[in-house]
Amino acid sequence: MRLRHSALPFSARRSGARRIATLLTALALSLPLVQAQADDRAMRDALEAARNQQWEGVDFGAIEAHPLAGYVEYHRLRSRLPQLEPRQVLGFIDRHADSPLGEWLRGQAIAQYGHAGRYDSLLAVADGEPSGTARQCYYYTAKLGSDPAAAAEGGLGLWMVGRSQPDACDTLFGTLRSQGVIGEQQIWERKMLAWQAGESGLASFLGRQLGSRWEGARAAMAQLGGDFAAVTRVPACLGPECRASGPLFAAAMHGFTRADTEAALEAWRKIGPHLPIEREHRAGIERDLIFYSLVRDIRHNRGWVDQSLAERSDADLLELRVRAALGERDWRGVLEWLSRMEPDTRDDTRWHYWAGRAQEQLGDDARAREAYARAAEGRSFFGFAAADRLGQPYALNLERNGFDESFRDQVARWPAVQRTEALLRINEPGLAASEWYGAVERATAREARALADYAQRRGWHAKLVQTTITGRMWDALEWRFPEAYREHFLHWGRMTGVDPYLLMGIARRESAYNPEAVSPAGARGLMQVMPGTATQLARQLGISDPGPYGVLDPELNIRLGSTYIRDMLDRYRGNRIAAAAAYNAGPGRVDRWLADAPEEFDLFVESIPFRETRLYVQAVLSYRAIFESLANGGSSQGVSMLSPTEKTVRYDRSLLARNSS
């Protein structure tokens, strides 16, 4: 028997209606998602076709309203260069002023117009000197007719380098030579730059363009090429009106100083006062001599170095001299050389700390505390070390930011945000990064913080960190040091017995939380593990070799990095300063540094000869203190950057465990 609908019980009819309504609602909600996915597929296909100039494969109707339609238009306009008219380029730039696309097309137009000789069109789209040597050469070539003075100045700057320049520079250089702007003097100066840079082919090419008046200078260069010590035997006056002397002696002394600094200074003291060379060449020679004498700790040169350095204010040279005084425990010298720094340079946490240490060693406790107090205002290794000496909490200067939900909804609809999201959806992470960081650079301070807030809520850890750097949000610590991969750090910290905040500090310094980071040397992942090291650690752990791509897995990378730093901690009796240095520079180097090290922790850190490692150790230890403070609700109360043992132990070979000797 068939039942009529009305014969069904009321409850059954209501239940069926609800199910139908639910299905219809779900269908209605899914339709936009399905349509968005279809739109993204069409966009992905269109972009791929546009890159390959396969315009028949682009469904312009399907992508017209897509937020990434400008990317296809960019490739279409680019393909029409250099025939494309400047007004069309400028129109595109105006329409996409809030995206990298506009400047990308400007750069392409400059290169294409320059190559085609359309110089008026190039100047019409240029907005000042472009980036990139080839484009700069085209730009100044275009300026030859309308602004010859600017063309000459820009062209000379491009000429005066010790390496070959691209073919795009040929017309510019040829014209400047025909005009006499680039003459034999400029050819000789560039030849010396090429010789100094080891570009023998370019040096020979330039030498063939010199006349007979430069024969003596060429002969002197040949003599010096085989023996820098001959600098005391070649004539002082070389070339027309002695104009070859300055560039030649500058290049020769640079090579001599690098090869044998002590002998180079002896030669310079013999010939320097009598050479007819320009002030800039003399200053460059003496700068090299001071730099290498200090870096190589040549005590025989110290008297001359101090006399010469007293007449200069080079911040990097004075830093080297202060570090030399610290290594010798010359506390009065530390204060003297600090006093010679420019006020802006001297007003740095690091130098306030060392001024305090020097005053303390000299018995002036009041001035020492004053200097430590200034240093303790800083959020850094030496700022925290100063706070420890004063027995006070660390100055985190923590900035907190918050936005209401209505404003967050607005941010999500910003065009740059929508383009970034769309690029990520179609698997274009590089373009997405360009969109995002370009938006941060153009943003106001509040807008940049709104973008950082968005990145945090989306879980874009690496983008978040880079956003704070691009936006100079130095006090936004919760964004600069996000809780990325926290559970993995805590787990592998427990499993290996390593302080998890130390692991976080290492990962933050190594990769800024980019799990796909690959260094020029090949180190990979969050904790920048070398593939060879990963293989050894995998064998040690009894797991499969992850290979160069498997090591990028965040959890595995953290496990391997945690194991390696544990081994370094075991090697150095649990000392995190030495272990961090070894993580960056290798244990062999750290063993050697400990053999000659000062005894106190701060002097050991300052004595690390590699600037990269010196800064690395300071960053990692200060970062771990920041991570612990953030986990403590943003308070540094009870947080200590170093353990009592790390502050008091002797930093020498006694720090090595016996089985590591």
What features would you highlight for this structure?
661 residues, 66% helix
Task: Describe the model.
The chain has 38 helices and no strands. Helix content is 66%, strand content 0%. The termini are far apart. It has helices at residues 10-51, 60-63, 69-79, 86-95, 100-116, 119-125, 133-146, 148-159, 170-178, 184-196, 200-207, 215-226, 245-259, 261-271, 279-295, 302-309, 315-327, 331-339, 343-346, 349-361, 365-375, 381-390, 405-412, 415-425, 429-442, 445-458, 461-470, 477-480, 486-496, 500-511, 531-541, 547-550, 554-571, 576-585, 587-595, 601-607, 611-631, 644-648. Mean pLDDT is 94; it is low at 1-8. By secondary structure, it is mainly α.
